[in-house]
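Quick entry between incubations.
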Amino acid sequence: MSSSGGQAASKPRTLLDKIWDSHLVLPEAEGVPSTLYVDLHLVHEVTSPQAFAELDERGLGVRRPDQTLATMDHSTPTEPGLNLVSLGKKDPQAARQLEHLEGNCQRHGIPLFGLDSSKRGIVHVIGPELGVTQPGTTIVCGDSHTSTHGAFGALAFGIGTSEVAHVLATQCLLRSRPKSFEIRVEGRLPKSVTAKDLVLAVIAKIGVDGGTGHVLEYSGSAIRSLSMEERMTVCNMSIEAGARAGLIAPDETTYEYLRGRPYAPRGEDWDRAVEAWRRLPSDPGASFDRQVVLDASTLEPMITYGTHPGMAIPIRSAIPTPEGLEPRQRSSLDKAMAYMELEPGRPLLGQAIDVVFLGSCTNSRLSDLSAAASLLKGRRVAPGVQMLVVPGSQQVKQQAEAEGLDEVFRSAGAQWRESGCSMCLAMNGDRVAPGHYSVSTSNRNFEGRQGPGARTFLASPLTAAASAVAGRVADPRELGHLDPGLGTSTGASTSDRAVQAGKEVV
Amino acid sequence: MKAPDASASRQALFARPFESTVVPLLRDDVDTDQIIPARYLKGTERTGLGEGLFAGWRYLSEGQKDPEFELHQPHFQGGQILLGGDNFGCGSSREHAVWALMEQGFRVVLAPRFADIFRTNALGNGLLVIDLSAESHQELSRRALAEAPFSCRVDLSNQELQWAEGGRFSFQIDPFARGCLLRGEDRLGYLLAQASAIDAFEVNHPFRPRTLLKIADSGDGDSGSSARSES
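Done. Structure below.
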C-alpha cells in the first residue's frame, strides 16, 4: 500500500500489519479501539434485515452503496425453476426475507444479484468469481465464512448484524488489532489429498479454539502451490479454528486468477494495483505471535467423526478412545459419540451413510465439482444414498454444465441443483433426516447443523464422491483411476483455468 | 423478560450492580447453531427467537420441553446469568444467538473463554460476557450445581462477581466495552461522530475495489428483474 511505503525501513511487518495500518481511520488509543475502514461490504438476506431496520429507526442512509454488494444464498431454494412467487407458497418466511433484501437494496441503491440473476450465488463464491475480492483490501460480511476471501490477501472477516449496521452507515468498524498466527505448511500434498484435508488437519492440530483472537496467515511451499480455489477452501475454514480471518499472501497465482474479471481493475489501474499488491507479503523477518509448521507430504484424506470440525482423523484411522485424553477432550468425545451413535476406537471407514452433500462456500467451486465428477464418471451413487450437488454460484453451474459435469452427476443418480448454501446449514428446506449420516463437503459438523438430529462427516469432494459410490465412508485413493478429461484431485491450476470461461473478455 | 431491540445497546444496562440466579450449562464448545439453529433465522426482526433458543437440546419432540434440560429445571427459572463452558459461542456469526439469549432473559454469560464474533455481538447488544479463570469457573460451577439456586451479584463498575458469605472474584473486561455498558453509549453513535475523519480518510485511501455502481451503470451489471437496483 503506497501510504505505508515510507515505513519500509522500519520494523518488518506482516501482511496483516500492512493491511491493518493502511485502513486505520483513527488508531487505537488508551481504552478506545481503532476505527478500521472497510473497503467492501457483502450482504445477504439472513443477517441484514435488522441492520437496515436500525438505519431506518435512526434515519440513516448507506454511506457507500458503491462498496456494498448483495446477493441471496442462505434461505434461497435450490430446486430448479423456483421464483419468489412459487417460493411464497412453499416457504412464505423465506420469500419474505428475500423480498426484504430486494426492497432494502432498492431503497439504498445497493447492487443486488437476486433470485433470477445469472451472477447470484453463495456470497463467498461470487466475490472472488466477479473479481470484487482483491488483495490488500478489508472485506466484511454478516457471515463467519467471510474468512474465505483471505485467500487473496484481503483481511476478510465475519461480523454480526449490529456491525452490519455500523458498516452500512459509516463504512467503518471499531476494532483492536488481532494477534498473528503463522501456519506454515511445507512440502507437497500426496495424490488425492486436497486443500480440504489440509485445513481439517490444521484445525485438528491447533483445535477449534486454537485461533481465537488471532488472524491466521498460511504460508510455505504447500500453500504457494495451491490454486486460488484451493486457497479459498483453506481460508474458509479458518473460523473453524476460532480465527476470524485467514490470510494467504497474493502472488502470480492470485493475479492470474483476478486478471480480466468483471470488477477487477483494468488497464493502467490494473498495473498500479499489481504493483501495490506485490508489496503486501509479510516482510522477511516479520514476527508472528504464534507459529506452527506442518508437513504436507505426511497428510492423508481427513474426515470428521464428532460434532465440531476439530474432531477429525485421517480416513483410515480409528476414532480416538477416551484413555489418555484431557478431561475437556474426553467430555467432548463422550458427548459427540452419544450424538453420532458411534464407538470410540473404531475406524469410520466402512460406516454406512444416507446422504452425500457436495456444495457450500467451502467446496462448491468448479474444481470441487470436477474432482467429484472425476470419481463419479461411469459410476453410480449407491442404492439408498441421496446425493445432492449444489454449485456455489449460477456461474459455476453454467460452467459445469458447459463441461458436461451435470450429466456426470445426473447419470450417477445425484441431484443437480441451483446455487445456494443449501444443506450446509439446512435453512432452505434441503436437509438431512434425523439420525441419518451424511458425508458433506461443507464446513460444520455441529449437532443438527444439517437438520435436527442429522449426523455429519466433513470431508473433501473426492472423499464425498468415493463414499457416495460405496454407500459407506470410503477412501478416495481406493476408487480406481481418475478420468484425465475431468481434472485431477490436486491439479487445481487446471481448474482455475477452467473457471476463466466465466471471466469477462477484456 | 425484556425483548432486545436495537436501542438496548444505548441503555446504561449495567450502571448498577444486579443479582440473579446462575444457570449452569456446563458444556464446552457450545456453538451458535446450538444456541439457535438456522431454521429459526428466517425472520426479519430481532424478536421471536426465544422459542428457538437451544432448540436441539430443550425439546423432546415438537413443542414438548425436556424437563431435564438445565433451563427448564425449577431452581434455575428466571436466572439471568448463564454459566457456560469453554469456547462459548463458537461457529456462525449469527447475532440471533445473542438476541435469543436476551429474549430468554439472560443479561450475563460467564465462561472460561468466548469465541471472537460472539463476544463482539454480545457486548454490542448489552449482553455482558465475562471470562473466568479456570479456578473461578470451577468454583462457580461447583456452587451453581451444589447450591442451586445459587445467586451471584454482578458489579461491572468494580469488575467483581460477588456472592453470599463474602465470596468474590474480580474480572477483566475490555475498557471500551465496559464504558459503553456502564454509560449506555452506543458504538454506532461513536462511529457516526467520526464522520469527518472518515471523509478525510476516503480522500486519501490509496486503493479500493472498482466501484460497483459504476460497473452497473456501464451495463456490466446483471439485467435480472430482481437485480433492478443496478439499472
